[in-house]
Give the backbone structure.
Amino acid sequence: MIEKIMKMGFTSYEARIYVALLENGELNGYELSKITSIPKANVYSSLQSMLRKGYLFQVSENNGKYVAKGFDEISNSYLEEINSSISFLKDNLPTHPINLEKFFSITGSENILNKILHTIDECEQQLIIDFYAIDFELIEDGLRKAIKRGVDVYMIVMGEIEVENEMNAKMLIQSSTKETPAIRDINLVCDGEIAIAASVGNEYCEAIFSKNINFVNVVKEALTHDIILDEALKGCDDMHRNKIKKLVALFY
């Protein structure tokens, strides 16, 4: 919780003091120091900073006590300021085109997930993606929105997932897996134009993305190979052969 509050501009001490005031009501510096285990000098300097930022009020009686401003009021002001800043920056920041034919690396699970979700959001026609079942909840909402936009979504899942009826993917392949490896792959191709190859895990997280046609084709071929192989294993009659021909024509 403290880390979430800090993302709104609070310092660590300020966040702890704010939570303590929400939990206990009116408190003075001595009481806050005792509750939060923050040194008194740091408590008093943080209280002055929080007053300037508008995170709390000082009780009018001369008792040295403070109360927290309601979170709704703080969050509304924060959102207004953030939205105003974003609007200004979108209109005024200089832009220089990026050559997406080059290869770009991403590190950190949160950064990788954000790039994957952004790419899914940008997808217009076709998305081919593979992932482990354990990661489905991280991308489920993005996939659901893509399907609602009319994107043809082909999912290859290592493991089994529960999919609600309204999430009507173009194709869903689920393979049994005995255990989830420490390092898991997430690969996708969006509209046949951009590809991401990611490896995520507890300690190792790295991804590459690019519009380089050779890279896109390599990732796409690996993904579509699994789709076509899955269909081939279902049977060798005319129905399955015709379906394989249609898949080959669709992807290649």
About this structure: The mean pLDDT is 87. Residues 236 and 242 are 10 Å apart (CA to CA). Strands lie at 27-28, 56-58, 65-68, 104-107, 126-132, 152-158, 171-175, 183-190, 194-201, 206-210.
